[in-house]
Design brief:
InterPro entries: BMC_dom, BMC_shell, CcmK-like_sf, CcmK/CsoS1_BMC. Keywords: Bacterial microcompartment. Belongs to the bacterial microcompartments protein family. By secondary structure, the chain is α+β, with helices and mostly antiparallel strands. It folds into 2 domains: 82 residues, Alpha-Beta Plaits (2-Layer Sandwich), CATH 3.30.70.1710; 79 residues, no CATH class. The protein contains 7 helices and 4 strands; from the N terminus they run βαββαβααααα. The protein has a 4-stranded antiparallel β-sheet with strand order 2-3-1-4, covered by helices on one side. The longest helix has 19 residues. It is elongated.
């Protein structure tokens, strides 16, 4: 945060906070650091940039939020200490990517033909995942699936298991 300012806008309600963030980013060359939901409908927006840019964007956002929602307070810290960085909300996108990769691996295992051969294995799977598998099988193979695609979403677990087992018998 060297030679950068930290600007904070606190509003009552999410709409005012979105308006503040939008106006801040459009008014000057600033970076939106985060949006923090406090209690009772209070929302705080954190922005960062050059001192003059942050002051200008905070002033512009202050004028815009008054028209749309309830402005609680605004504040600009010209050159905050490096220790302030530790308490700011800074979302890290890397862990989300790891979680998505794990889910994709699980879906690939579920979609393979060799992973579901017995009724016991199918009973351990959630109904939502069985519906997904049924749709994938219906799309993947030219042979028709025993349940119509429009009825898959309302099918019960027992019906889905029976249909999947019948489908595997036909494909073999």
């Amino acid at each position: 945060m060297k030679n950068q300012a930290l600007g904070m806008i606190e509003t009552y309600g999410y709409v005012g906070a979105i308006e503040a963030a939008d106006v801040c980013v459009k008014a000057a060359n600033v970076e939106l650091v985060g949006c923090e939901f406090v209690r009772g409908g209070l929302v705080t927006i954190h922005i960062r940039g050059d001192v003059a840019a942050v002051k200008a964007s905070i002033d512009a956002a202050e004028a815009a939020v008054v028209k749309v929602g309830n402005l609680i307070s605004t504040h600009v810290i010209p050159r905050p200490s490096n220790d302030v960085e530790k308490i700011l909300p800074n979302p890290d996108p890397e862990p989300k990517k790891e979680k998505q990769e794990v889910k994709e691996e699980v879906k690939k295992e579920e979609g393979s033909d060799s992973s579901f051969k017995t009724t016991e294995e199918l009973k351990d799977i959630k109904t939502v995942d069985l519906r997904t598998l049924a749709r994938e099988l219906d799309d993947k193979y030219e042979a028709s699936f025993p349940i119509d695609r429009s009825e898959i979403r309302s099918a019960r677990k027992k019906e889905l298991i029976e249909a999947i087992l019948k489908f595997y018998e036909r494909v073999k």
